[in-house]
Amino acid sequence: MTASLEIRRQLTESPVPAERRAEILANPGFGRFFTDHMVTVTWTPERGWHDGVLRPYGPLSLDPATAVLHYAQEIFEGLKAYRHEDGSVWTFRPEANAARFQKSAHRMALPELPADDFVAALDQLVRTDCAWVPAGGEKSLYIRPFMFASEVFLGVRPAREVTFAVIASPAGSYFAAGVKPVSIWVSEDYTRAARGGTGAAKCGGNYAASLIAQQEAAENGCDQVVFLDAVERRWVEELGGMNLYFVNDDGSIVTPELTGTILEGITRDAIMTLATESGHKVEERRVDIDEWREGVATGRITEVFACGTAAVVTPVGSLKWHSGELVIGGGVAGPVTSQIRQQLLDIQYGRVEDTHGWLHRVC
Ligand SMILES: *Cc1c(COP(=O)(O)O)cnc(C)c1O
Fold this sequence. Notes:
Bound molecules: pyridoxal-5'-phosphate
CATH topology of the largest domain: D-amino Acid Aminotransferase, Chain A, domain 2
CATH architecture of the largest domain: Alpha-Beta Barrel
CATH superfamily of the largest domain: D-amino Acid Aminotransferase, subunit A, domain 2
């Protein structure tokens, strides 16, 4: 580790009492509770990255004219720290998140944070708040690094003051009551990303743009929404925050290729490696929404699953659109989906050997 950024330590004088913390960790849910500390770092063109500080978790005070509130120059990341049987805590491919964060920064005209500094900031926060990493089940500590235009200025140009911050939030098992397939709504009226746009960057704006479609999905009784390409409105892209995989009856699996409008998931990438090693032929190519519908109808597509850090691997049980709907794989998690899900979790929780060097020890 050759992090060059110095992070000052300013510890809280009023940490959450151990008893209350234990109560929270018993049933953390997602994104509702936060650890005792956070990291903030400032960037200006003159001084570069400076004033790194690990400090008590708490509100940021923002001038109403802070640029991010107006022009959404913002990016984020999401990854987890996992507690293994022996009590040690590990993150999964944090350098991949660091690299993606740099790509997102580039697209949003934000300064790039050196990868080693990114990983070191996460490590320092998780190490300090190590007691907040839950044990057991599929619990974890969700880490949320983010960067935003903190300059107080209403002019439209890349900000000359930027803040990088890291917070962490204990997360419960996504499927507390067992893995449950999700129902998916095909967004025919709204798109998420277009060529040349920000679809491949992990920025808040993409999520803002997806919410109305997500709302439409909910109104139609669906859990999630799938977006199609913005030009022909037929190529399957991804969900609002998860990538997609299709399993064929010959054992091959397919995921939509990265065209610049799809977010390059780290889970997606890991699955490509694991599935190939397990003998599946893995293809990255365009998938037509009609291929999906016909493939399920004829039985060629046997399983569909979504993947991302938060839910790992989620079976897709049904697909619904304005004029129809269909059930996939009997509406239950299929064998390939279940096997890949288990394989990934076993690596993350240290139950099998990490042969890819994906785990990074934190504390
Ligand atoms: C973060 C994200 C994903 C999943 O990426 P992972 O690295 O696997 O967590 C997929 N799609 C979108 C739009 C995302 O923002």
